[in-house]
Specification:
The chain has 29 helices and six strands. It is mostly helical and 578 residues long. A six-stranded mixed beta sheet has the order 2-1-3-4-5-6, with helices on one face. Helix 2 runs antiparallel to helix 3, helix 19 runs antiparallel to helix 20 and helix 20 runs parallel beside helix 22. The radius of gyration is 28 Å and the shape is globular.
Length: 578
């Protein structure tokens, strides 16, 4: 029976003024699609109590936080005292809007400073607002911490990029015999490890899950697949996928995406069709994954087949992300004017990322005329992005047009736009070592540079030759080689060879795309030292082994588009470290 018909029956029987009857109906109406009915019913109540206000405040906290806060203010003006249920609902609304409204003072005034329910809500609130110190203060002062207290503080750390602190707090919680983690907490931890890219920590949490006999649910299994993929162990992702008793569309999409960014492009496409055979309908995230696979693998016909199926087979309209993948696919293949035409035929205005993807392809294929056109479009939609200036200056440098290159860089300076440097990260034990291109800030930089110079000479003997053509400056050949020598990923790999005397896999995380010269250098290192080296750059993973790379060198055709919100930062910045 609908809310309207129930209310009509109450009026007909003369019960519409009875608070008990209205309260029962109010509980039924307190949902987004009936919120206007709920407000109307509430106004019929002669003397609403705290419970009645809580119903409305809670209902609106999810979909209309400003209304929830307004109701709370009216409640207080009417002299109704909030209870320990009211404040968590209001805190949730305030967190959505990132405003405090003096609630912490009110909590203290009303004597809820020892109420676990309210304290947990305060931790979540401060975490949502980025106030980690305040959240930690509330957590430390909570007299009776329950599972939600620990989960809220761990989530606060993870959501504010304090991943190691989250893991340390989880370990501290293990010393508390009365608190046992649940699935939600473990998924949050896996999210932290996914961001860190720390495989050993990921395996430690996975073993904890197995030791405590947690069921491999859809959510937990999918989180493990994503974690292993981001930690450069796609084989472990496949193993988890195969062991899962039940999968959903998110599970399939996670593995398709993982296979795509790890260079197993044909396997990603095969898995896409296997998913369809198993009765799952792809969503836009799935399409993104398989289109990235086609782009990274140079599978042009397959890419168009999948793209066209979005509308023809599933009656869905492709979004910007799918168009971006197709622009990337065409750009890598050198079909620049086809890509430009596709951008102009898009039903919505192209995003700066899509124009930037095309500009990167123009740079790689040295198409100056089209690069200038695309550069003009980017100046209209996003004039302050440093990467666009660098990309355009690079295409001029690639054509030996040094005056024009200097003009672009000068314009960049006049607009006070600076280029962020390339850097690489490598984990040694619990310490993350950071290397910045051409920087001497690392305490062992002299030792690393000396070793790197000797390493390059050793590799020259077996065929390595610096790719000096990517140094797009009008300088002597010797200076070009010097410019290439100290790229951040070379420094990181040299450091690993110095410190890791065993045959462990070397894993490096990089904030920008790997350049052609470093790619060649690391291929030779993997062969000369018989080491597997994995470089995670902003677009994909490169698995180097025995002198070859999983990308089969197709990655060297400029790629910038990454449509995943849960992936590496999607906005391409610049081509190389220099």
């Amino acid at each position: 029976m609908s809310t309207n018909s129930t209310l009509a029956r109450l009026i007909k029987t003369g019960h519409h003024n009875r608070t008990k009857s209205l309260r029962r109906l109010l509980l039924l109406a307190a949902e987004p699609k009936s919120s206007h009915h709920a407000l109307s019913l509430f106004q019929l109540m002669p003397y609403p109590r705290t419970f009645d206000w809580n119903i409305l405040i809670r209902a609106h906290a999810h979909f209309s936080p400003s209304t929830s806060i307004s109701l709370f203010s009216t409640m207080r003006l009417n002299g109704v005292i909030p209870d320990h249920f009211t404040l968590p609902f209001v805190l949730k609304a305030c967190a959505s809007l990132r405003i405090e409204k003096g609630l912490h003072s009110l909590v203290l005034k009303l004597g809820f400073c020892n109420d676990t329910f309210v304290q947990n809500a305060m931790i979540s609130f401060y975490g949502s607002c980025g106030s980690v110190d305040r959240a930690l203060k509330v957590f430390d002062e909570s007299p009776a911490k329950d599972l939600v207290s620990w989960s809220s503080m761990i989530a606060c750390y993870v959501n504010n990029a304090f991943e190691y602190e989250a893991l340390a707090l989880f370990q501290k919680m293990q010393l508390t015999d009365s608190i046992k983690p649940d699935e939600i907490m473990l998924i949050t931890l896996l999210s932290a490890i996914r961001s860190l890219g720390d495989l050993e920590l990921g395996k430690w949490v996975h073993k904890f899950i197995e030791r405590k006999a947690f069921e491999l649910s859809v959510r937990l299994g999918t989180a493990l697949i994503e974690m292993y993929s981001r930690c450069a162990s796609i084989d472990d992702s496949i193993k988890v996928f195969d062991e899962m008793p039940v999968r959903n569309i998110f599970t399939w999409s996670a593995l398709i995406n993982g296979l795509a960014v790890h260079g197993r492009t044909r396997k990603a496409v095969e898995l896409f069709y296997k998913m369809k055979e198993n009765g799952f309908q792809p969503d836009f995230v799935t399409f993104n994954g398989v289109l990235v696979a086609c782009s990274h693998g140079g599978l042009i016909e397959e890419g168009f087949r999948v793209f066209n199926s979005i509308k023809n087979e599933y009656n869905m309209e492709p979004k910007l992300e799918q168009y971006g993948c197709m622009v990337d696919l065409l750009g890598r293949a050198g079909l620049l004017y086809e890509a430009f035409e596709l951008v102009n035929r898009m039903p919505a205005d192209p995003s700066p990322i899509i124009w930037r993807t095309l500009l990167g392809a123009c740079v790689n294929h040295k198409n100056l005329l089209l690069a200038e056109k695309v550069g003009e479009k980017l100046q209209e939609v996003d004039p302050s992005h440093d990467g666009d200036y660098v990309l355009l200056s690079n295409v001029y440098g690639g054509k030996d047009k040094w005056v024009e290159k200097e003009r672009v860089l000068n314009l960049m300076g006049e607009n006070r736009i600076s280029k962020r440097p390339g850097y690489s990260l490598i984990t040694m034990g619990s310490v993350v070592e950071k290397f910045i291109a051409g920087d001497d800030s690392h305490p062992q930089s002299e030792e690393i540079k000396t070793f790197l110079a000797s390493l390059i000479e050793r590799l020259r003997v077996v065929g390595y030759s610096p790719v000096k053509s990517i140094v797009l400056f009008d300088v002597e050949e010797e200076e070009k080689e010097h410019n290439l020598m100290y790229h951040s990923e070379k420094m990181a790999v040299a450091f690993a060879l110095l410190k890791f005397k065993d045959n462990r896999t070397i894993r490096v995380m990089k904030n920008i795309r790997i350049c052609c010269d470093c790619h060649s250098f690391i291929k030779h290192v993997s062969n000369a030292f018989n080491r597997e080296i994995i470089i995670r750059d902003r677009n994909r993973f490169h698995h180097f082994s025995k002198g070859s790379c999983s990308c089969r060198d197709y990655c060297l055709l400029k790629a910038t588009f990454q449509p995943y919100a849960h992936s590496v930062d999607i906005s391409p910045v610049y081509l190389y470290d220099h």
